[in-house]
Design a protein that fits this description.
Number of strands: 17
CATH superfamily: Endonuclease/exonuclease/phosphatase
Strand content: 25-35%
CATH architecture: 4-Layer Sandwich
Distance between the termini: 14 Å
Largest sheet: 6 strands, mixed
Radius of gyration: 19 Å
Strand order of the largest sheet: 6-7-5-4-17-16
Helix content: 10-25%
CATH class: Alpha Beta
Shape: globular
Number of domains: 1
Mean pLDDT: 89
CATH topology: Deoxyribonuclease I, Chain A
Order of helices and strands: HEEEHEHHEHEEEEEHEHEHEEEEE
Low-confidence stretches: 1-43
Amino acid sequence: MAPKRAKRKANAAVEVQVVATGAISETGATEAAAGLSVTKKVAVEKVFYTTDMRPAKLNEPAHRILSWNVASLRSTLKKDAEAINRLINMEDADVMCLQETKLKDSDVEACEKLLRPGLQDWHFYFNNSTAKKGYSGVAILSRTKPLSVTNGLGTEDHDQEGRLITAEYPSYYVVNVYVPNSGEGLKRLDYRVGSWDVAFADYLASLGEKKPVILTGDLNCAHQEIDIHDPKRNLRSAGFTKEERESFSLQLLQRGFKDVFRETYPDIVGYTYWNYRTGARARNSGWRLDYFLVSEAMAGKVHDVFHLPDVQGSDHCPIGLVLHAH
C-alpha cells in the first residue's frame, strides 16, 4: 500500500463538528440550516466520508468483498428483502460475508429464497450455532464457487457457536468471523483472550502457510483509542479492555496481518457499530469493531477499503475491500 496515497486520503477527510446535542454537521454549514439547537461545541474530528474519500472505481479485474454484521439475517430481510442484494449490486461485490445471522438450520431455506432473486447463480454457505439456537452464526455468499468451504476452527471447544467460516479461492482464503464478545461483567474475557484468540491465530497461521488470507468480520475489539468514541470511560468495557487490545496486536498484527483501514486512514474516525438503545448513531458515538485484515503479501494489492455508514438495517454498517486481481 503506497504511503503517499494513504496520506492524501487522510488529508481529504471531512472535518465535522460534534455538538452538545449529539448531532453532526459538516464544517461550514450553519447550525440553523442543520436544524440544531446548540449550546456548546465539544470536539472536532476527521470522519470517514464515503463520497469524498474513496478512490475511483477500478477499470480492470478486481476482487470485491463486502462484510456486514446484520444482527439477525431474518430480521434484516423481513424489514427489507432486497437489502443484501441491493448492497451487492451497488458495490458489484464478488463475495458477501455476514455475521450474527442468528439462524437455526431450519431458517436457512427461507432466507435463501429471499436472497436468491438477483443472485440466481450465487453460492450460499452458512455456519449456524448448535450450542444455542438462533445465536451468533456466519455466512458467505459467493459469486463463484469456492474451491472449498470449511466451518469452524476444527476443535469442538470453539466450534459450537457458529462463529467462523472459511472459503478457499485460487489465490487466497476468505475467513469470515464473529469473534466472541467478552460479555457483561467480562465473564468471557479469559476464554476470549486466553483460548479463542490463541486458537484462532494458530488457525490463521496454518492457512497462511498455504496461501494469503483475507480476514473479515466483527472482531469485537476497538483496537486503538481512535476506534471508540469515549475511550476513557470504556477501559473495562467488553471490546476495549487492555487484554483484548493487546491480544489483537499480539495474535493478529504481530503475526503478519495488516489492518488495511487503519493503515490507509491513520488519523480518520471510522466507526462501524453504534448502540441502538442510546441512539448513538445519530451523534456518531460509535466503535470500530468490523475489520479487513490481510496477509502482508496481499497488502500491496489493496485498492480500496471503506465503510458504508449510511446503510441502515443493523447496529453495524457494512464494510468493503477492493483488491487488484493481478
